[in-house]
Design brief:
Length: 337
């Protein structure tokens, strides 16, 4: 019986080679189950780091959970090694399987021990969501994917930004603007399924500055500005995202943002000519911002920075409608699960 559970365990843990599809590992991450007449058997695995997949097989009978077997898969871009135990206490010598063949539909493993009872293991997805398994060429349809809950995560981003254009037409063209640097800090709450799609709700502070040298008419007033606008925005953003690439290290995101509160300050020369020019306070030249956000993030290997799930991001802000803001930001982010 232990050998049967070990076979089921090994069938559910895919390996990786240079030509294999990295996404297969992530597609199988989570919990699978097989219902029996008297008990349910579960096959569950998760990533302990970027190159290690931990897998367990356990049963539940009369409310009691019993761990049946355990496996650890170590892999990189060129090789993969799977160590499997048929008991929960590592009391036996593990069987070692290596990747023999992989394509879009199936993965086949070969036992390094040519005298072992189980020489070859293979698994394949069916269109109905079942896992078709083969043990020494004997095919079995043994369990299907259980309903998976969305993953929750906290995201912390901090970085620098460059403002390219103010959020209203203060100048006739971009030549009258002077780009200014600022800082970004945000905290987000993310929801992600077991696939590639997710969404983040983000609250943040953005400190921006942009210089302008321009004159314009505002009703009966002739206004002149030559200086630097400095503002701090408290904003809310909604950012759907999708992971791309074999290892899903790249993430594309695009969404909307809006300013909840703002502090404005103008430093420089300010003049207004006409009726009640004192009413034209330069601190109120710029209104709250709203528009679109879009960017790309790259997940760093944990060996470089083993804190959370680090990533480098770059994204831009574009105002919508009469809001003309343009800005670009780059920085470092962490996903805390």
């Amino acid at each position: 019986m232990k050998h049967l559970f070990l076979c089921l365990l090994l069938l559910a843990a895919p390996a990786l080679r240079a030509q294999a599809n990295f996404s297969i590992l992530h597609d199988l991450e989570g919990r699978w189950y097989q219902e029996g007449r008297q008990q349910a058997t579960y096959s569950e695995w998760h990533f302990s780091d970027d190159q290690t997949l931990v897998h367990q097989v356990f049963s539940v009978k009369c409310g009691v959970t019993v761990l049946l077997s355990h496996a650890v898969l170590h892999f990189n871009q060129h090789s993969a090694t799977l160590l499997g135990w048929s008991d929960s206490l590592y009391a036996t010598t593990p069987q070692i399987y290596r990747l023999l063949q992989a394509d879009a539909d199936q993965i086949i493993f070969q036992n390094e021990d040519t005298t072992a009872q189980t020489q070859q293991l293979a698994w394949q997805f069916s269109p109905q969501g079942y896992l078709m398994a083969r043990t020494n060429h004997v095919e079995t349809q043994f369990h299907r994917r259980a309903k998976q809950e969305a993953k929750k995560s906290l995201l912390l981003h901090f970085g620098a930004n460059v403002s390219i254009m103010a959020n209203r037409d203060l100048a006739r063209d971009a030549r009258h603007y002077r780009k200014g640097a600022g800082l970004d800090l945000s905290l987000g709450f993310g929801l992600h399924n077991q696939g590639r799609v997710g969404a983040n709700f983000e609250l943040g502070l953005s400190q921006r500055q942009i210089g302008v040298s321009a004159r314009w008419l505002d009703g009966d007033l002739a206004v002149s500005r030559n200086g630097m606008y400095r503002n701090v925005d408290f904003y809310l953003a909604f950012m759907p995202e999708i992971a791309i690439g074999k290892a899903r290290r790249f993430t594309l995101s695009a969404g909307l943002f809006g300013t909840l509160g703002r502090i404005n300050r103008f430093e420089g020369s300010s003049r207004a000519f006409g009726w009640n020019p004192e009413l034209k306070n330069p601190d109120f030249d710029l209104s709250k911002e709203h528009g679109a956000l879009a960017g790309l993030a790259w997940q760093l290997p944990k060996k470089l920075l083993p804190i959370g799930q680090p990533e480098i991001y770059c994204r831009g802000a574009w105002g919508l409608g009469k809001n003309k803001v343009r800005a670009v930001s780059v920085g470092l982010g962490f996903r805390l699960k």
